[in-house]
Amino acid sequence: MAVLSVVQQKKKQALAEKRQAIAKSKAIVDESERILECAAELALDFPTMVLLNKRYVDALSLLQKHQDEKSVANKFAQAKETLIQLEQRKVTLPTQMRLSDDDKQIVKMVQALKRLKAVVNFEHNKSNLSQEVFGLIAQSIDQKQRRINIESSLTRAASSMVIQQWGSARHLLNNVSVQIPVLYSGEDKEYAAHIDQRYNQLRAQLEQSMPDIEIEIDERDGELEQLFNKRKW
Q1: Which of 37, 39, 49, 153 is least surrounded by Cβ atoms within 10 Å, i.e. has the fewest?
Q2: Structure letter (DSSP) for residue 122
Q3: Rg value, the chain, Cα
Q4: Which positions ≥6 away from 192 have C-beta within 8 Å?
Q5: Residue 222: is its pLDDT beyond 50?
Q6: Is residue 97 classed exposed, middle or buried when 0-12, 13-18 and 19+ CB atoms within 10 A define those classes?
Q7: Model pLDDT for residues 161-189, shown as the tens digit of each residue
Q8: What is the DSSP letter of 67?
Q9: Which pLDDT does position 151 carry in this prediction?
């Protein structure tokens, strides 16, 4: 009975480890797919794409050992072929990030970058990335996050002015103004100048409306003060 009990415990342990391995692989596959879904729009470079696809292939390979499913086998074959092409640089990758007009897609891009940052930190901590490559990828992620923040702020500021939400527009433009010097300190001076020009145009439009706003506020404050004084005992 003692021998049988030990065998049963080992089987349970093996089954638990298998389930854990499957769950972990599925999580990595899902995470990788969510990031890769936005890869073209984010214009991820070769080192980043190789890192993501290698991680994706490894997870699918492990999942394939435990799950005999055609869908997993097909994904593995396609992912492996993609990885080979990336490693040999036989594919052309986008070089310019494309920011969608769809807020939901922007949220997906932001979430993809957050997931990517976590993956890069994890792989670096496991010594799977050199310090140089880690630094370059981390810097690229920060730049992309900043660009999304700036460009979406400019778009939202313009929309706010259309519906005369001047306070929101001013807040969004102030958010952009503090980041423009950071852009100029980077390598892409042309992009920094482009954003600076867009910012100045929107700022000028806002300031043209500000005197009217201030007059309305002054008149409203004056009326309130008179009303308050009338009610004094």
Answers
A1: 37
A2: H
A3: 27
A4: 180, 183, 184, 186
A5: no
A6: middle
A7: 999 888 899 999 999 999 999 888 876 78
A8: -
A9: 93
Tokens of 66: 């435990």
Q: What does residue 150 show for φ and ψ, rounded to 5 degrees?
A: -65, -50
The average pLDDT across 190-199 equals 92
CA–CA separation, 14 and 18 (whole Å): 6
Measured in whole angstroms, the distance separating CA 52 from the mean position of its chain's CA atoms is 15
Q: How far is CA 7 from the centre of its chain?
A: 48
Cα distance between residue 63 and residue 58, in whole Å: 9
CA distances for 9 relative to 5, 22, 158, angstroms: 6, 20, 65
Asked if residues 56 and 28 have their Cβ atoms less than 8 Å apart, the reply is yes
Say which residue the tokens 């506020």 belong to. Answer: 217
3-class DSSP state of 41:
helix
From residue 115, give the alpha-carbon distance in Å to each of 27, 83, 152.
12, 20, 20
